[in-house]
């Protein structure tokens, strides 16, 4: 398998890398510079792999290119302990994968990207406030859900936890409030077999 990811440590690519490591899968990596002009993700060679011009993309051994971190994780986790077997458990994993993509990542990932690399220069104060409020709302929903629970679905570690962990682990550093349940859950994820840290930032701008 071949993973396309970025030279900057992308949380979306981290989800896939963390799962690949926990599964003990072998894979090669191509790193693309998303800050280049034009970004390497928007050049014809890569658009032929993913017309949506975004990493991560996992190219399977038969040559099929699979983009979207949630779809890649769902594919890799099938038949493993990282995806529940029950119909409801699988649907609840999808529930949190969709939550992450619609109500969490668009705020917290963007806030992280602006904080460390892109700056907030071309965004209004109102826009910045909206990112902060909506990101915090997502973390607060996670905090309430985790009351009395160790993990998000069926109280066992799954790709729902990986999806939510990838950017939540940066939340406190970039100024979001992280309360007791989420904080304890972050540590629990880090104790899982095969857990690997997010890649270091080659530009040195992100301290995580
Ligand atoms: N929904 C996608 C989002 C992927 C995404 O936003 N990737 C960013 C890096 S984290 C990217 O490729 N940016 C470069 C570009 O847009 O050209 C996923 O979960 O995989």
TrEMBL record:
DNA-binding as UniProt keyword: no
Domain of life: Eukaryota
Record keywords, A-Z: Transferase
Keyword Cell cycle: no
SUPFAM superfamilies found in the cross-reference section: GST C-terminal domain-like, Thioredoxin-like
Location of the GST C-terminal domain: 86-208
Entry-linked Pfam families: GST_C (PF00043), GST_N_2 (PF13409)
Alphabetical list of CDD domains matching this protein: GST_N_4
Boundaries of every GST N-terminal domain copy: 1-84
GO terms, molecular function: transferase activity
This protein's name: Glutathione S-transferase
Gene source species: Clohesyomyces aquaticus
């Amino acid at each position: 398998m071949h993973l396309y990811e970025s030279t900057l440590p992308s949380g979306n690519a981290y989800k896939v890398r963390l799962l690949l490591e926990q599964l003990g899968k072998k894979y090669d990596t191509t790193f693309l510079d998303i800050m280049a002009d034009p970004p390497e993700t928007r050049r014809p060679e890569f658009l032929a792999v993913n017309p949506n011009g975004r990493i991560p993309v996992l190219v399977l051994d038969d040559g099929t290119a699979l983009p979207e971190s949630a779809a890649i994780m769902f594919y890799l986790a099938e038949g493993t302990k990282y995806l529940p077997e029950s119909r409801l458990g699988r649907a609840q994993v999808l529930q949190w994968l969709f939550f992450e993509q619609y109500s969490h990542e668009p705020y917290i990932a963007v806030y992280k990207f602006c904080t460390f690399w892109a700056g907030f220069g071309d965004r209004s104060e109102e826009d910045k406030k909206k990112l902060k409020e909506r990101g915090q709302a997502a973390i607060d929903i996670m905090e309430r859900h985790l009351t009395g629970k160790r993990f998000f679905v069926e109280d066992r570690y799954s790709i729902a936890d990986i999806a939510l962990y990838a950017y939540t682990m940066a939340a406190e550093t970039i100024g979001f409030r992280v309360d007791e349940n989420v904080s304890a859950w972050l540590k629990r994820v880090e104790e899982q077999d095969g857990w690997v840290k997010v890649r270091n930032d080659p530009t040195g701008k992100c301290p995580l």
